[in-house]
Amino acid sequence: MSKSIFYHAGCSVCVSAEHDIINLVGKDKLELVNIGETRNRIAEAEQAGVKSVPALVTTNGNVLHINFGASMEDVKG
Amino acid sequence: MSKSIFYHAGCSVCVSAEHDIINLVGKDKLELVNIGETRNRIAEAEQAGVKSVPALVTTNGNVLHINFGASMEDVKG
Q1: What confidence tens digit (pLDDT) does each residue in A2-52 have?
Q2: What is the ipTM of this complex?
Q3: Domain boundaries, chain B
Q4: How far is the C-alpha of A59 from the C-alpha of B24, rounded, in Å?
Q5: How far is B38 from chain A (nearest CA, A)?
Q6: Which residue, of A28, A52, B17, B23, has the greatest Cβ tally within 10 A?
Q7: Which pTM was predicted?
Q8: Are A62 and B4 inside 8 Å of each other by CB?
């Protein structure tokens, strides 16, 4: 994959982190996925190793969990 | 400040996150501070709101705590 993927769930912590990450990394290098809305991508996020959102999955597959917005269980809830 | 500051303590989680952040943000836009070694910057990090390392303080003053390496208490230990 050529872009890092930022998974979030629309929570306030997520939105704040999203702005920071866009400023830091650049919007063209990011795919933004709201797994609260796009629920069919939850499984993909979990498979990538995402335990909570917001989280950034880098192009080499590493997962950076940023602050703490919501656990995947809460998102699925 | 014109650069984001990446605070870390040399732990394995920190080093891994450091590589990812350098790849994402670019080394020229980052100041890397090992507060395990440069202990006189611990107070500054705490004042910026850093609760654990690794953490990235953005140019607008937001703190992004990334994964979890060590609490500030552990670093001060």
Answers
A1: 899 999 999 889 999 999 999 999 999 999 999 999 999 999 999 999 999
A2: 0.87
A3: 4-76
A4: 9
A5: 24
A6: B17
A7: 0.91
A8: no
